[in-house]
Amino acid sequence: MKKIGLLGGTFDPPHLGHLLVAEEVYHALDLDEVWFIPSNDPPHKDSTDTNTEDRLEMTRMAVQTNHHFDVNTIEIERSGTSFTFDTVSSLVNTYQDTEFYFIMGGDMVEYLPKWHRIEELLELVSFVGVQRKGFELECEYPIIKVEIPMFEVSSTLIRNRVQGGGSTRYLLPERVETYIKERGLYGKR
């Protein structure tokens, strides 16, 4: 049976923190692949100002040098609000000989009880909580905990840096950094 990690997000933009999380979980759980799933319209976040095509292209650029990473466009193709239940249900039906692991940051673990159709979702996928030294992942649901090296970066930090004219060097894959500059993304408004 194949083992696939799923890392969803707006990826606005995808950064080295996303890649680090995926790589650490890949090795810790001996996965076959990790699929990055850019969301169309996440239920837990405000909508993004960056168009879907740019976010998708940046995500593809971010993962292209790693042979066990891939981009899955299921949520973009489906359109509408991106509920994890709908995504995982579709993947489980399509890839029947595959075990899925949904990877999430420690900040999202506490929100699991509020997720759409969480009880049914727990029967379809294993949840992986990314843990940092010194922090506990507390949840009433079963979570596989994976500890990663500390690397404090977020898409918000990067957008703010770009808007303020600051450096994003060593926070983004070089191709993504170049794409952002060439397309004028996240610039001053």
From TrEMBL:
UniProt pathway: Cofactor biosynthesis; NAD(+) biosynthesis; deamido-NAD(+) from nicotinate D-ribonucleotide: step 1/1
Pfam families for the chain: CTP_transf_like
Keywords: ATP-binding, NAD, Nucleotide-binding, Nucleotidyltransferase, Pyridine nucleotide biosynthesis, Transferase
Taxonomy, superkingdom: Bacteria
GO molecular function term, any single one: nicotinate-nucleotide adenylyltransferase activity
Statement: the UniProt record of this protein carries the keyword ATP-binding: yes
SUPFAM superfamilies per record: Nucleotidylyl transferase (SSF52374)
Reactions mediated catalytically: nicotinate beta-D-ribonucleotide + ATP + H(+) = deamido-NAD(+) + diphosphate
Keyword Secreted annotated: no
Family membership: Belongs to the NadD family.
Function according to Swiss-Prot or TrEMBL: Catalyzes the reversible adenylation of nicotinate mononucleotide (NaMN) to nicotinic acid adenine dinucleotide (NaAD).
Protein name: Probable nicotinate-nucleotide adenylyltransferase
Gene name linked to the record: nadD
